[in-house]
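Reopening closed ticket. The problem is back. First fold of the pair:
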Amino acid sequence: MRTAKLTITPQLDATPRADAPASGPKAVDRLSQVILTSLEDAKAENVIAIDLVGKTTIADRMIIASGRSSTHVGAIADRVVRACRDAGFPAPKIEGAPLNDWVLLDARDAIVHIFRPDVRQFYNLEKIWSADRPGEARIG
């Protein structure tokens, strides 16, 4: 259970859509659920979600996943972007394409890292952000 207060900072370049979900803790949880569902649908592997509230202001949640190949990583990223857009959230900003060794999706309140397994092992973001910290949830 989280004890830190959730604060959402507005993005200067963000123009909310008329049908965009409201901001706040429920919107963050809904965004995370949309992302996690799309990762599962795309057969992403070793998915982990890390609660960042109180640790940093860059996002409220970090989600890390692996794809089996560069092609799979790119397909997973495309599916997450489409799912966010279809759910009424702004499309995440994408870094790392077209190489697709490590694709970063910035969905404002959630940051998604999608790696090839060897690249994920090299950078080991899980250790940096969630080593022995409460609020970590391993999915699947």
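Second fold of the pair, where the issue appears:
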Amino acid sequence: MDESDRFNLFLLPNFLDAEACANLKAELNQSPTTQAPVYLQGTPGVIHEDVRKTTSLHPSRETIDDVHQRLMGRRSALEDHFGLSLTDCEPPQFLRYVTGDFFVRHQDGNTRQLDFDHLRVRRISIVVFLNDYSAEPQANCYGGGLLNFYDDETTFGLRGETGLFTAFAAETTHEVSPVTHGERFTLITWFR
């Protein structure tokens, strides 16, 4: 069995073409930034760098709306793949991981963290890679930063490629391993 099948991943290469990814990265590099939040039940605040260390990038409303519309165009394919009825998706978020950045094992929805309404309604998680993985330092690529999936028996590490759309059930345990070189750019959202 292919490991992506084991985790029921929906993989769509070239969701965004190389030019669109390059243009988006150029805008993101000029956009305002904040520390990326993480929501932990029973803890104050949303910045916990021992759990998640990455930067949120905030492009123009026009860019957010354009990406959201493209994501919504994949809703029926996701419904078919996962056997679910989905309503909409959250506005996309844009992330930059630099050397040392990571996100520990976690789940995005259908979890015990019932303090947070947005986690209860997430059904499908989406990650779109805006640049390529490379084991060796290379321009416009990153190393480390694998999107690792876990179950009781195995681990599968997905290496990003420019424009790759990745979808998985929100309750799937996953992580982003520490980036070892370069910058890892992604956009993320969740279908409900």
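Update: turned out to be a display glitch only; the data is intact. The CA atoms of residues 131 and 162 lie 4 Å apart. The chain has one domain: 3-191. Please close again.
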